[in-house]
Amino acid sequence: MEKTYDVCVIGAGIIGLSCAYYLAKKGKTVAVLEAGGFAHGASGSCDDMILFQSKKPGINLELAFESLELYRSLRDELDSDLGFENYGGMVLIENRGELQIMEQFVTQQRNYGLDVEILDKKEMRRRQPLLSERYIASTYSPMDSQADPFEVMHAFSRHAGRLGVKILYRSPVTAVEQKGQGDYLIHYGIGSSLRALQVVNAAGAWAGHIALMVDENVPIKPKRGQILITEKIPKLGETNLWSARYLVTKLSSDYVIESTEEERQLGLAFALTRSAGSSYLIGSTREFVGYDKGTTMEGIRAIIRQACSTVPILKDVHFIRAIAGLRPATPDGKMILGEHSSRPGFFTAAGHEGDGISLAPVTGKMLAALVCGDSLNAGLKELSPDRFNVRNMEAV
Amino acid sequence: MNRIFEHPILGPLEDTELVRIFVDGEPVEARKGEVIAAALIATGKQYFRKTIKLQEPRGIYCGIGRCTDCVMTVNGVPNVRTCVTEVEEGMVIETQLGYGKWGRGINS
Amino acid sequence: MMDREIVVIGAGPAGLSAALEAARAGAEVLLVDENHKPGGQLFKQIHKFFGSKDHQAGVRGIDIGVQLLEEAKELKIDVWLNAEVCGIFNQNEVWIVRDKERSVTVRAERIILATGATENAVNFPGWTLPGVMGAGAAQTMINIHRVLPGQKVLMIGSGNVGVIVSYQLLQAGADVKAVVEAAPRLGGYGVHTAKVRRAGVPFYTSHTVLEARGKDHVESAVIGRIDERWKPIPGTEIELEVDTICIAAGLTPLVELAFAAGCRPVFSPVLGGMVPVHDAAMRTSLPSLYVAGDISGVEEASTAMEEGRMAGLSAARSLGHIDDATYRIRYEAVENRLLALRSGLFGQKRRDAKEQIVSQSQG
Amino acid sequence: MKDPRDVFICRCEEVTLREIEEAIEEGYTTVDDVKRITRAGMGLCQGRSCSKVIARLISEKTGIPLSDLLQTGYRYPVRPEKMMVLDNDGEGDE
User: Does ipTM exceed 0.95?
Assistant: First the structure.
């Protein structure tokens, strides 16, 4: 007879491991099934940001506040520094058009509680002495932080393990059968299976496939992000850096940015963040290319050209690796969190796109509360998977 | 001096043009076309860099540009593989401490 | 983007031979090597080769290298030195960085990977001290850069590389204090071992290095006897005053480009570890990619040259430069020479390992 | 004699035998898993001098055959390159 657990979490990325940890803290017996190895999905191939400035006022920003506090307390709870850093962040502004849009956006964010301001060129260059001359101003927020995904996942795994959680790597889920009320049979690997009262679908870019196994609709598509990793170098400036160029297109659709056709196709956006290993992660692209985790000449060149035109000294810096991760993207840019009302006992916690690292702790905590039936504030209803399950639309 | 001036098979070491390089501020005569590592070994230099975590000495290990253990800061740029980089006139070579520092005094 | 019929990556014995064979057949060849000088291991082999007349027995590796280079010039093969291949995209776009400054992408109809092998590591306390280096590194320093990495040397490993480099260290004026071999019996061919023994160098079998000592550089090495499970036997330690420790613990095929490009791997312990699956004509699981030399299994410079000929021949033929009849004749000539090279005690094991790999390619 | 478990396995990232053995004992039993837990193989040489040793250590401790453990996944560039090599407008065509 298969072993039975209270909850089976599918996916051992940073989201799945966070869910497993918080579920175990609430006394649940948990098994985690991961198709690949440790940190083989997007969680292992992303930049390590807990980023506020890229978020519009709303639920994502709110959850990011809560997640930052959780990260601070998790350092003691998980007895690991988690590679947590609070360098702050600056979004670079090239021209008046961008400045105007960013000023409005910063005001909205401030009204929503985010400590962020606009810096003039002098103050910007004081904090970033190596910037190219072409930037006229920037934003600045002391809140933007980061954590090392590998250390966070390792810490979650270690402590979840102490609470009895079983994590099985290289165990791809092949089928999920609902046998009865609160009784799921999950098949994995070659002919293995286990039973669970509840299932948590934390399979990231593959969450849609897992949901199909129980005839549920989770419209998550993989959005590839190519990233370059440099050799270890001294700090380039006080904070991590992004460019307003991509952000403004999200903020006002009619704003036309001067980027080449290739840059538009690659969904290029500049990000320069210092990793726990003292190297820099430079990104990134946003491409719908299915599940292809390869890197391309065009992607690498576009990232390099943008990086060198932003921080010219990077020309002399060696890059040692080009990687790509598949961000799990949802149609409305919000994660999917909650129980499928048309499939009781089946939960989804996925779809964080670029915010997996920043929102992992709060997602795990909320998911554990939902699985245990605690009532959460109504605001989370907008994250429910039911928003994508047409059958429920008619019922509502 | 570790140069092999006489070799039973390869014959005598022909003279070549000399190139002046600076190693930690000291001028050194190197042979044109030779790699930095060879010029430094010829002077008997003990170590090329100190590591980041434990500040331990490192030098040549693979000798063919694959292991990156012989890196030094050359002309202000850190992490240059000295076993596959040829010397040039006036080259400034520094023992690299940790991940090194930018030559143009930018070590924030 | 530039176009070339055949790009050969690596201008060592295998790559040079492949480029020559393909160019002789009329293909348009670009030969790329990351070093300043071509020839790879050839120019470090200053000992005389042996074997049948065909394999230039009695000729020194360095002279063979010069000869191959001359032919390459005559056949007007385009040779790019100081050119590092950083990647292969879509199985035919070769990303090359020239002189560490500018990047070029060359679209190749066929690619021959002759990237050689890399030295295995042996981890012992103090092995990261300056003065501890691969035997190949010492050989490069002596034969190419004409500098002695040290005066008093301990050699770890008595295989061909270990004993040949020990002899070359002696020729260059260094004092080889000892050769240490973990196995109960010595590894290299008798002819090389005898030369080193005659020079008075002691050999320690069933011994290994336990520790390298020194502040900023190797100052001494501790060796000791080991039991059959390779565990050190307390009380057998000997401290040798050396300033250099060379590691000659075997080679591993340098397969990063082949596998990143998508070639199917197969495990071959006799030939050094993971190698790209390839057929007898040296073609990998990707129809446009061929391999030759140590990347396809660690053997010797002479087998590398023959595999290079085979790969060059097959690649040229697949582009229609050789008719089938001529190809059949040349193919069999190379195949016979390879069979001859893979004979004798050591050779037979390598021949069986190769046949194992080739059988995988038909699967 | 120094403690043999303090010997470095990964030269670039200064990762010791002890750290690698602890990761294996925690259940991380592939070269990639050990890399992500200990950083061994993340350095400038990208695992060239340590990945084969790590594979052998895992095989010895777990019994998993070496052929299932040896690294076959590589990422570009296979040599560290300065970003300037691609920071030009056209292709450096000959």
Answer: no
